[in-house]
Amino acid sequence: RAGACYGVQRALDMADEVIADGSRAYTLGPLIHNPQVVAELAARGIRAVDGPENVERGSVIIRSHGVTPAVRRAVEERDLPLIDATCPHVARAQKAAADLARRCGCVVVVGEGHPEVEGLVAYAREAGGEVFVVAAPGDLPASIEAPVGIVVQTTQTREALDAVVEALAARGIRPEVKNTICF
After folding, report:
1. Cα dist. 67→59, 146, 148, 164 in Å?
2. Model pTM score
3. pLDDT tens, 68-105?
4. How far is 45 from 25, CA to CA, in rounded Å?
5. Which one of the listed residues 17, 77, 116, 145 is annotated catalytic?
6. Which of 20, 102, 117, 142 has the fewest CB atoms within 10 Å distance of its CB?
7. What is the pLDDT at residue 3?
8. Is the separation of the CB atoms in 132 and 158 below 8 Å?
9. Whether residue 133 has pLDDT greater than 50
10. Is 51 helix (H, G, I), strand (E, B) or coil?
């Protein structure tokens, strides 16, 4: 586990705590992006499942890159013990996506197909926003109009964020930017 970032290490520590007493636990998707560690967790009693409907009993651990609000509600409705191992940086990005949606109406998520991005999109949409996911300026739809908020997948680069902001500025749009890149 050497070299794990703070959010990943935190999720691993939380998972270890849950099964320390022999309890059974499930993660909604792989806890982290490391097949060897996920296999090690499975051998110790923490299984990855596709959704809360696949858990009859035991604790449900939300993975480091978070889940959508609907998935969280589905766990809560099943009345299962919930351990939120969402990286605090990802949780901050989720909150920013929702806040920007409420304030701006339109949210651009700078990111790529990833569970974290699915969550950011869901938080913004649940707050009433129109959402566009872009990996590069060329992905920006021509129809975007101000006001626009921008939130960033935590693993994206500053260069990717800057390129999208510059492309919007070239259209006369000055977005409200929440730089949620994890350093």
Report:
1. 16, 28, 24, 25
2. 0.91
3. 999 999 999 999 999 999 999 999 999 999 999 999 99
4. 7
5. 116
6. 142
7. 61
8. no
9. yes
10. coil
CA dist list (Å): 78 to 39, 49, 139: 26, 15, 39
For residue 39, how many other CB atoms are within 10 A of its CB?
12
For CA atoms 108, 113, 117, 123, the dihedral sign is positive
Which residue in 24, 33, 89 sits closest to 60, CA to CA?
A: 24
Give yes or no for a contact between 27 and 46, defined as CB atoms under 8 angstroms apart: yes
The strands making up 25-28's β-sheet, listed across from edge to edge, are: 46-49, 25-28, 59-62, 82-84
> Can you give the pLDDT at residue 1?
46
Strands 176-178 and 148-152: parallel
Question: Which pair of structure tokens corresponds to residue 180?
Answer: 């949620």
For 103-163, the DSSP string reads HHSEEEEE--SSHHHHHHHHHHHHTT-EEEEESSGGGS-TT--SSEEEEE-TTS-HHHHHH
CA distances to 18, 21, 64, 90 from 171, in Å: 50, 58, 36, 29
One-letter amino acid at 118 equals E
CA-wise closest residue to 65 among 16, 19, 123: 123
Which residue is it, tokens 């586990």? 1
* CA 183/CA 174 separation, integer angstroms: 24
